[in-house]
């Protein structure tokens, strides 16, 4: 589990929503976005929503808005940088293969690449930037950005929600078996560490040791 995901367990709900928003927005920043673990974060947030610690509707809403805002920020940055997008200090640190892959997607799909890229790491960061640099108006990508944001947030948080809900139903059923298994392991550990067992081990070693003549 990442530091951000662990943080969700330790802060109040309002702060947890803030962590989600900050992480999703950070993912829209060139280079930094590749290192933000939003998948783990959203899965954890979804799991917390299943236990009632977070509101699933609020979680979906703030995550969706953060994605849309991040895409808008990326588009604006790309529009301001233009041709310098790939040649500036941050742009040069991004692998050329990532740029090519995103450009190919933009060439084939246009505005739709922003929606498709939302489900691909790195490309979801680069696509809005390239759309802005290419002069594509924001209103052209906005519907795709919003639609993909809803699906992405629902899918990732929903997966965590479903997994946690399933675990909560299975744990009571597996309770007796789990307790028995833990008991056996604890018993074996105690037996191996008991004084009598250590004496027997010592006697065995002494018996197996060759007698010197």
Blueprint (SSEs and pairs):
Layout: H1 3-10, H2 13-26, H3 38-50, H4 56-81, H5 89-93, H6 96-109, H7 112-117, H8 123-133, H9 138-193, H10 195-208
Mind explaining what this structure looks like?
The protein has 213 residues and is mostly helical. The chain has 2 domains: 3-167, no CATH class; 173-208. It is 78% helix and 0% strand. The protein contains 10 helices and no strands. It has helices spanning 3-10, 13-26, 38-50, 56-81, 89-93, 96-109, 112-117, 123-133, 138-193, 195-208. Helix 2 (13-26) runs antiparallel to helix 3 (38-50), helix 2 runs parallel beside helix 4 and helix 4 (56-81) crosses helix 8 (123-133). The longest helix is centred in the C-terminal third of the chain and has 56 residues, at 138-193. The protein is elongated, with a radius of gyration of 26 Å.
Q: How is this structure best summarized?
A:
The chain is 78% helix and 0% strand. It has 213 residues and is mostly helical.
């Amino acid at each position: 589990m990442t530091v951000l995901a662990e943080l969700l367990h330790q802060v109040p709900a309002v702060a947890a929503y803030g962590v989600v928003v900050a992480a999703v927005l950070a993912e829209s920043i060139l280079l930094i976005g590749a290192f933000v673990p939003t998948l783990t974060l959203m899965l954890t947030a979804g799991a917390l929503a299943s236990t009632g610690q977070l509101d699933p509707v609020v979680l979906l809403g703030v995550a969706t808005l953060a994605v849309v805002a991040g895409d808008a920020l990326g588009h604006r940055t790309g529009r301001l940088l233009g041709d310098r997008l790939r040649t500036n200090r941050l742009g040069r640190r991004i692998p050329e293969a990532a740029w090519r892959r995103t450009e190919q997607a933009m060439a084939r799909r246009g505005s739709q690449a922003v929606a498709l890229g939302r489900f691909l790491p790195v490309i979801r960061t680069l696509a809005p930037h390239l759309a802005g640099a290419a002069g594509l108006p924001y209103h052209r990508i906005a519907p795709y950005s919003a639609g993909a944001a809803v699906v992405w947030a629902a899918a990732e948080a929903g997966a965590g929600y479903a997994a946690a809900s399933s675990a909560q139903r299975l744990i009571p059923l597996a309770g007796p078996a789990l307790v028995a298994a833990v008991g056996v392991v604890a018993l074996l550990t105690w037996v191996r560490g008991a004084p009598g067992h250590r004496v027997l081990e010592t006697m065995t070693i002494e018996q197996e040791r060759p007698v010197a003549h």
